[in-house]
Amino acid sequence: MFPHHLHSARGNLRRIRARVVPERSMFVRTLLLAAVVVGAAAEPIRVTLKKISNSEFLASKVHRFSVRAGTSRLSQLKISLRPPSQRLIADSPRIYVTDGDEDGDVIIKDYQNAQYYGEISLGTPEQKANVIFDTGSSNLWVASEKCDTSCRGKSEYDNTESDTYVKNGSEFKIQYGSGPVSGYWSYDDIIMGGVPVKRQQFAEVTDASGLGAAFQAGKFDGILGLAFESISIDHVMTPFGNAVAQGAVDEGVFCFYLGKEDGQDGELMLGGYDESYYKGEINWINLKSATYWELELEGVAVAGSDVSTGDKAIVDSGTSLITGPTKAIKEIAKLVGAHSFIAGEYIVNCDKASEMPDISFSLGGMVYTLSPEDYLIPDGQKLCLFAFMGLDVPRPNGPLWILGDVFMRKYTSIFDYTNKRVGLALSA
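Given the sequence above, the corresponding structure tokens read:
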């Protein structure tokens, strides 16, 4: 009998677990996968994931700042936390929006703020690759054995070593905020968290230079998109969409539970969700658009005072922070006492946390509140990253808020692919 607290139609629930390790890496909280098969089919398949600490994640941003702004400014930043009127750098966040030949593809990030990744396998015999499990995009791509020096140090897929590889060869190209990534399409069998998918179309990337340092220094070899086919390049079926169509999961549902404490385990569950991971009832919210996991955002408030209304929001596992229109984020940062840092990001003295207000989002008729404990990422000393970032998305796709891992740690997030809805509940 399947445990009563695990929600799945027949119990064929796949899991991906997260745990902190003291890694010395940059940019992303890392996830390493190792499949652990647990007995009979009624038990979930668990896959261990790991992440770097908050202090290391923030250290990567300080490093980026020191490279771009100079060590003397970094010293000033650490010592004085200068007021917001004295901007430390002049550059502002940039966004690239690309339209395809038909409905179009909108890519709104560059993965500098992605934290979680995990292991999948491709081909027969299996070739391992670490990917970001990203609800904010829809394609699967990995570094190819034919990739140039931009993939140096990555696990590279070699199609000549796979018995199940099928050639496609048509061009793949995608534009991220930081630049283009290109390669060609292929087919092969994949396994994600114990879920097998046959003949998945994916891209072998031969030039990842557009991702810059985010890819070179990160511990991921590619991206596995968990959004919808409507924004997939060339409208390719997503890996999870294929898993549902092929009956590899019992339900068209997956769930992220991210540990609330720095170092606490977390899980990505494929095919169901665990009721012991949240408190109270799930608030199911129908999607505004089945492109990203896009919801209607009824309002954003700081200490009960509205700062934004009538926008859209996407729940995005591929972004660690919360982003919103630059004007609104500036207002929020001012209200919490945060100081301009780099490219739309802000920092604050951790000692001031007790004086900072709550920030809330209204979604699906309910209010979701983040306290300073939720929206500050400490470096282990006195410096905290304010986990809100300015990012302007032009119409018709914007204004847009991105509710990343900071939001998803507080609220267990269930993605119902079949019924086109998101479920939110306070994490246990």
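The longest strand covers residues 179-192. Try to locate this feature in the token string yourself.
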